[in-house]
Amino acid sequence: MNKKNNGFLINFLLIVAIVGIVALIFNFPEREETGTLRIGAGDDMAGSILKKVISQNEFDFEIEPYYLKDCWAPTAQWSLKSNVYDVAIVCTDAADKFIEASDDFVLLGTVTENTDVLIKKDNNITKIGLTSNKNYLSDFIKEKYADAEIEYMSPHSFGYAYESGQIDGYVIDIGLINSNLQGKIENVSDSDYGSNVIIANRKILKDKKFEKFLKAYNKMVLEYNENPNPDYFEFKFGKDERRNEIWKVKLKEIDLKKWWSPMILNKNYINLAF
Hints:
Strand content: 15-25%
Number of helices: 10
Shape: globular
Number of strands: 11
């Protein structure tokens, strides 16, 4: 074999090796089916819903919950991409972006409506803190406070920025209201809007565990809708009367027939009309 052929062979093997390394890094192994259903949810209203479903039912399988501090955090996105979760209840924008970039998950429906609130010191608002990437919330804020400047930041910075006067208010999930933070609370929108959705890995759609979980979730929704009030749930920071005064959270059932359709099982991206 001459030098030219040797060079070609070396280059070919090098390319194969690089492709193999990249595949190992970016393509995570498929998760083996187990007796456990892994569910990711925010530690906000979404987490309160998940905890309620788990506490109300004795499943014949294990539910392994993962509570996320921020649905836009890199760890949350990595967990979805690496198939750590079978199911996730996340904010709408994060779900849309993730599903656009992945064929593994499908969007099954809206879970909550009207879960975002504005905490403010008074009505003299010039700057409002908002979580980065939550575009639909910025539209609501601009409608109510057209002259206010929106300061995008990590939700972990809200408390300090608010107390130190860097912002006059901030938008937070209603499940995360902290009674230690003083101020008035109002809904970000007077109209109903979807705030959290449920997405699921395609491989779990025909799994009996998933079907049983969704039936239990729908049963909980029906019970809640008979008398919608915040006392139905437990929240991360406990009760707060301000939450009760403005509560208008709605829960939505998930149509079991839709996710059984061949279209959902096979199509790359499903955008159901909610």
